[in-house]
Design goal:
Helix content: 55-70%
Radius of gyration: 27 Å
Number of helices: 8
Distance between the termini: 66 Å
Mean pLDDT: 77
Shape: globular
Largest sheet: 2 strands, antiparallel
Strand content: 5-15%
Number of strands: 2
Order of helices and strands: HHHHHEEHHH
């Protein structure tokens, strides 16, 4: 049997908890992997979605060479700056051509709020392959079997193709080469887009091997 003082202490603590006022502060939200949790925090705290932030870190890590992450981050920031400058110049040139053609300024008004990360995201979405090939051994023969790619694999291939295509360009700094390749991919052109088309053609040519996946 419990002592009388211990029983009285438990009853008093229970009564205090029951009569305590509820807190007026909103509950703290922890940013998780879901998009809904990131949006609940608000634009002042989390301007980018979690998926986009993960894509940025992935791009910097793939761009990193010989462990020099600070250099890769600087090149990435310069690339975003160059993309914004190039897009602003394109918009201003388009406005001037429309005005010279006789259209009033009100009809050719266009937003100059260029988001370079949105351009990067769109370019990577254009480069992402839908289907790929995996090697499957049957006896002494290795077959290329077409299969659907996971979302992470699509992003990885797109980033690697863009970086490889930018490194194949010569004569300019890496930030300028990345900008040129991303703007080409943004318009559906460039070496990275060609690699995506080649992979799709390979998967289409090996569609007879689809049954070997199981």
């Amino acid at each position: 049997m419990l002592p009388r003082l211990l029983v009285v202490g438990r009853q008093a603590r229970s009564a205090a908890v029951a009569t305590a006022p509820l807190s007026t502060h909103p509950p703290l939200l922890r940013i998780g992997k879901s998009r809904a949790q990131a949006e609940q925090v608000g634009p002042q705290v989390c301007q980018l979605t979690v998926d986009h932030d993960m894509m940025t870190r992935k791009f910097v890590n793939c761009l990193m060479y010989d462990g020099k992450k600070s250099t890769a981050q600087r090149v990435f920031d310069d690339m975003l700056t160059n993309i914004k400058i190039a897009e602003l110049q394109r918009i201003n040139s388009k406005k001037q051509q429309s005005i010279a053609g006789g259209k009033p300024e009100d009809e050719v008004a266009e937003s100059t709020a260029v988001d370079p990360k949105l351009v990067l995201q769109t370019a990577l979405d254009n480069v992402k392959p839908i289907i790929g090939c995996i090697p499957v051994r049957r006896g002494a023969t290795v077959y290329q079997v077409p299969t659907a790619l996971a979302p992470k694999r699509k992003t990885t291939l797109a980033i690697k193709w863009v970086i490889a295509a930018a490194r194949s360009r010569k004569g300019k700094p890496m930030a300028d080469r990345l900008m040129a390749e991303i703007l080409d991919a943004y318009k559906g052109e460039g070496t990275a887009i060609k690699r995506k088309i080649e992979l799709h053609k390979t998967a289409e040519a090996n569609r007879v091997n689809s049954s070997l996946r199981y």
